Every structure is written in C-alpha cells, then in structure tokens.
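Aim 2 progress update. The chain analyzed this quarter is reproduced below.
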Amino acid sequence: MSSALEKPQIIAHIQKSLNYTVFDSRWIPCSAKFVCMGNFARGTGVVQIYEVQHGELQLVKEIEKAKPIKCGTFGATSLQQRHLATGDFDGSLNVWNLEVPESPVYSVKAHKEIINSIDGVGGLGIGDGAPEIVTGSRDEFMVCSVEFDRKDINMNKLVATSLEGKFHVFDMRTQHPTKGFASVSEKAHKSTIWQVRHLPQNRDIFMTAGGAGNLHLWKYEYPAQRTKKGADDVDMGVAGSVNLLQNVTLSTQPISSLDWSPDKQGLCVCSSFDQSVRVLIVTKLNTV
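Predicted structure tokens:
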C-alpha cells in the first residue's frame, strides 16, 4: 500500500489578502503572472495583475472599471496578444489589452444582466477555426460549473458540478438515442461545487473547488471498453470511475475560482470569498 507521502500533495505556496471581493483568477499564458477580477466595496470593478517573484506576489498593475467584473478568460486570444476577455455585472463583454487597458479593444452588450461565466476557444494555438467567446448569464445555467477535458479534440469527457456537492463525468464519445451519454456521479463535497478544472497536461486529472473552502483532486479511470451493445443492439457508452487523489481545506469560505498554469504542471491559482488569492503547487502529478 502506498504511503500518504507518495500521493500528490496540494501545497499552499503563497497566500495574499485582497481589499476587494475576488470572483475569478486566471494565469496569463507564457508568464509567471496571473490576473484577479472582482469588485471594490464602492461598487466598481477591478483587475489586478500579479507576478510570482522569489516566493512572493508582486502587484504589477491595478485597473479599475465602472462595473464589477465577474469572470474572464484568455481562451480566445493569441499567445502574442494575450488579450483578456471579461464579463461584468452589467452584461457587457469586453476584451482588454492589458498593456493599454484604458479602453477595451472590443465591447458588446452580451446579456441584459450579469455575465456569470465566460470561456473562449480558437486562441492560444489550441484547436482550429476562428477565435470564439461564449458567455452565460444567470438564467441559462442549471449547474455551477461545466468543462470539457480538452478543447483541441473531439468531444471526449465532460464534467458538470452541482449545488448538492455532486459532480458528474459524462463520456461524450457515444450517445445512445434514448439513454444518452454514459456517466458516473460522485458525492465529492458537503456543499456546492463552485468550479471544476482539468489539468492541461493530463486530461484525466481534474480538481473540484467547494463551498466549504476545500479542493479535491481526482483522476478518471477509463473502463476496459468504452462502448457496448444495448438490448436494442445499438451502441451505448460505458462509464469509467473516479478516484480521489488528494483533498485539502484552504478557507472557511467558498473557493470561487481555480485555474491551472498552462505552462507549469501542478501550478495553479485560486481565489475565495475570504478576499484572498492563493498560489498552489500540486506535486507528483506525473506519477499517478
């Protein structure tokens, strides 16, 4: 039996208290920097850029905007531009050049109310086709977080989290006409699962972030065969299983965002409603 030290460890490398409510945090590709997004108590929005230097966080830039900022992504930008797309409380989608952030390079009224989620494809050299941005408002999402395991392949696996502390992993390769996609469910947390994020370097490993301030690290194991014939002689999917690799409690408040570094395996950043941002190191990911 393997000892506890042979398992991956989730280490809180750096923690920093902030003077605003932080909703989202994202690594800036090809850098040691990340952005935090949220709102000040006075009702304005804020984007802060931090850089990891010698085990500490250095504030590089602070940008204040008229409306609170709920979410952001670099998914639709090129590695050369690294433009940040954000969604705010007013339903506006803005794309920012962080070097010259006074005015957005693109802006559109995407929703009538708050944009709760945002993602992008076609940027960062991942996949084919033109860059695209998708946003979601309050009324359009029944689950807390959904994510495909990768963006540069045909649909493979989808993880969806829920209010009841459960998450569901769907095998998207085979859809039965009546039974749909095969899935496995797991009761992971005692509270809402706010986020799920797949490790960029290994699509079978993912982290869930809970409302009680904890993180759970999981690995999906494929079945021996991913399809079988149903009673109607039609192919149907076969779900795999999920194994808990590690868990840790970081805060007494919900962890509102989590983002893996696309460049350094095991490095991630998370924010929570205790007005803190944390840089984490997850070890031994190449051995699981």
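The CA atoms of residues 145 and 195 lie 5 Å apart. The chain has no helices and 24 strands. These observations will guide the mutagenesis experiments scheduled for the next reporting period.
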